[in-house]
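User: Quick sanity check before I run a bigger batch. Here is a single chain. Can you write out its predicted 3D structure?
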Amino acid sequence: MTTSIPSSVALTTNPWLRPLTRSTHPRLRLLCIPPAGAGPHFYRTWATGLPEDVEALAIHLPGRENRFAEPLMTDYHDAVEAVYAGVRTALGPLPYALFGHSMGALLAYGLALTAARMGDPVPEHLLLSGCSGPGSPPLKAGRGRWSDVELVADLRAMGGTTTEVLENPELLDLLLPILRADYTLCESFRAAPPTGPLLSCPLTVLAGADDDDHTPADLARWADVSNGCFSQYTFSGGHFFLTHESARPVLTTVASALSR
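Assistant: Done. Predicted structure follows.
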C-alpha cells in the first residue's frame, strides 16, 4: 500500500495552516504555533533562514487574522483536540517537527502527546520556546480576567507589542479579547496538565535571558516529558527574544536542530 504525502496545494487550502516556506523536495515539515494574542504573522520572518529541505508552516488558530470571525478557544484540552483534528493531515507521512512559543509551546506539547496516544506519526523534534515546563508555578494567575489597564501594562513590560498598537484603542479592542481567551487557555493547562505516554523525540528548549517569568529550573522541567536528547539554550532578550534581539541566532539554532 502506498501512502501519499499531502501536496503543498492541499496544505495551503487548509484554514489551519499558513505556508511560511516552499520546498521542492522537502525532507521535513516544520509546524510553528504562535504565542498568546498572535497569529501566523508572528513567524513571517522565518521565510528565510531555514534549511532548503524544510517546509515550514504556521498553525492558524481561530479568532485571529483571517479567522477573526471564528470563536476563540479558552480550554487547553479542547484546543489541542481541535488543532490536532485540523492539522492531522500534515503530521505525516513526511517527517515533521513542532515549534511553539509561549502558549504555542503548550499546544505543541499537546499535539505531540496526542499523536503518540493515537498511534499517529510523532514529531522528529519538539522545540519549545519561552515557556516553563509542566509542574511549574502558575504564571500571573488570573491574567485572563485582568482589566484592560493591567493587560496593557503587562504587554509593555514584556515587549513584543508595538507602541502603535498599545496606544491605539481600536487595535486594543481587537487584541485584548484574544489575549484574555489565550491566557485562560494557558491557565487551564496549568490547572490540569495533560497526561500521556513519555515522548521519545529530541526536545529543545529556548528562552530569553531577561525573561524573569521563566526560570532556568522551570524551563528544564520539559526534560521530564521525553526520554530523547534534551537541549536548553538561553538567548539575549526578554520574552520575545526570538523576534527581537536574538532573531537570527534563534533561527540558526532551530535550523541546526532540524538538520541533525
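The mean pLDDT is 92.

User: Great, the batch can go ahead then.
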